[in-house]
Write a structure and sequence with these properties.
Elements lengths: L17 H23 L4 H15 L5 H21 L3 H8 L3 H9 L5 H5 L2 H10 L5 H19 L3 H13 L5 H16 L5 H9 L3 H21 L19 H28 L3 H20 L2 H18 L2 H20 L4 H10 L3 H17 L4 H11 L2 H4 L3 H18 L4 H10 L3 H29 L3
Length: 466
């Protein structure tokens, strides 16, 4: 079997220049300092706020064009609001460090996936997928399940891995398998504490993961099933390659081991959150550092772990964090500006007026705002942060867990539909199709009905106390 290229499509320079090294060092320092501050309640804001500003400025010139435009727009609007409100320089500077905890999580979570590349797990998934290469519906199920599970560990880095295993090997130009990959990945956003939506909801709505995680997972499964049903399979063609040999014992063991490790990881996060009183922003980054080390010790692959940390994570992954740093730093700056200007008091009033004050109307208006604004060109991260930072569920008359799951489901569907999400930018790059095609053309007719379905279900759960 050909060697798989993990995490990235094009190789990065092995010996980057001093500016690339400085950028990576600043990104890592920002994550570790943010984690130390949240773990030990250290007064790090005086250091981390200017560090976040410097890191953002280092990343801005090399970020994707759409990310640069979005970042500049957010800084421009935020600056106008802060200037009009007469905010002091301390408020301006604090905006850059507003999302420091989220950045720590986003930057450190990819460490969780390092053992996959040297532990034999991806090869086991590859062997499993070969058995269904000509069975259309099961293959789509394998594609969705693989990107869903790996996405919860690797974030968007799961997409090129599974794409290489399945779509490129099949090589028939049928886009539905790539559509299944994107849909499977996006629904992990609904429930995974390793991705941006759930930690932000926990932070802004002051809820525990166990209050929203189980229901969010059920909604993710339902959206996935709906997405799979809407992908109509073509008939099996004679002579198509399919491996009918039973899966070997080693691959079965590795797959079982991977599922067990993933379930144990989520359970461990839940126990830590319930027993320690630490926030998910502290727990997930800390576990992301320690868990793969213990995993590698169990595998007897400590040397491979050290090498992966130095090369794969230290060079490739940290270098590619530039877009996340720019987006989350600038989104935090705008959130602080909105609060400082007093505009955050008008957004709940607008939602309440448009919705008529009932829960179904509120959930529909919130979903329409997130999805609609994202389709106009605003990055989903920005709209998600803006909604979470300005809406108070109690003021709107709904429970935080109810509105949190509504936002999580909307966020997941939005990253499939809008051509401006990182998911669709990635899918555009690996498929060679335009963001408009891999976004709204592929997923609009599925995404909107799926979102309406889960909103109705959530409103039904609300009637029984959720």
């Amino acid at each position: 079997m050909a060697k798989l290229v993990y995490y990235h499509i094009k190789p990065l320079p092995v010996t980057p220049g001093w500016l690339d090294t400085s950028r990576r060092f600043a990104v890592l320092a920002l994550a570790l300092l943010g984690l130390a501050g949240s773990l030990f309640d250290l007064p790090v804001r005086s250091v981390i706020n200017p560090l976040a500003l410097v890191t953002m400025l280092l990343c801005m010139p090399v970020a994707a064009k759409a990310t640069r435009y979005t970042g500049v727009a957010l800084l421009g609007v935020g600056s106008i609001l802060l200037f009009i409100s007469g905010a002091g320089w301390q408020v301006w500077l604090s905006g850059f460090g507003e999302n420091r905890a989220l950045l720590s999580l986003i930057i450190l979570v990819p460490l969780l996936g390092l053992p996959l590349s040297y532990g034999g797990y991806l090869e086991a998934i590859d062997a499993f997928s070969r058995r269904y290469m000509a069975a259309e519906r099961p293959l789509m199920g394998v594609a969705m399940a693989s990107t869903h599970f790996l996405g919860s560990l690797l974030n968007v880095g799961a997409l090129p891995i599974i794409y290489q295993m399945l779509v490129q090997r099949r090589g028939d130009g049928d886009p539905r398998l790539a559509m299944a990959l994107a849909r499977g990945y996006s629904t992990a956003v609904v429930w995974s504490p390793n991705m941006a939506a759930i930690p932000l909801i926990i932070h802004y709505f002051d809820v525990k993961y166990w209050e929203i995680g189980p229901v969010a997972f059920i909604m993710a499964v339902l959206i996935s099933l709906f997405g799979m049903v809407t992908l109509r399979p073509r008939p099996r063609q004679p002579g198509e390659d399919q491996d009918d040999m039973p899966l070997d014992r080693g691959s079965r063991r590795k797959l079982l081991e991977l599922v067990t490790v993933g379930a144990a990881l989520i359970a461990f996060l839940l126990v830590l959150e319930g027993q320690t009183g630490l926030s998910i922003f502290s727990i997930v980054p800390l576990v992301s550092i320690l868990f793969p080390l213990c995993w590698s010790l169990y595998l007897g692959k400590l040397a491979e772990w050290r090498q992966a940390v130095r090369s794969e994570y230290g060079i490739n992954i940290l270098t590619r964090m530039k877009n996340e740093v720019v987006l989350f730093t600038c989104a935090g700056f705008l959130a602080v500006a909105v609060k400082s200007s007093g505009l955050d008091g008008y957004i709940p009033l607008l939602v309440h007026t448009l919705s008529g004050g009932n829960a179904l109307g509120i959930s529909l208006v919130v979903a329409a705002l997130v999805l609609g604004i994202s389709l106009l060109g605003v990055h989903p991260i920005v709209t998600g942060v803006a909604v979470l930072a300005t809406l108070d569920p109690v003021v709107l008359g709904v429970s935080p867990r109810f509105l949190g799951v509504v936002v999580a489901c909307t966020w997941a569907v939005t990253i499939n539909i809008t051509p401006f999400s990182a998911t669709n930018v990635m899918m555009s790059g690996i498929t060679g199709r335009s963001p408009l095609e891999v976004g709204p053309r592929w997923h609009l007719k599925y995404g909107v009905p799926a979102l309406l379905m889960v909103i109705l279900l959530l409103n039904g759960l609300r009637l029984v106390g959720y």
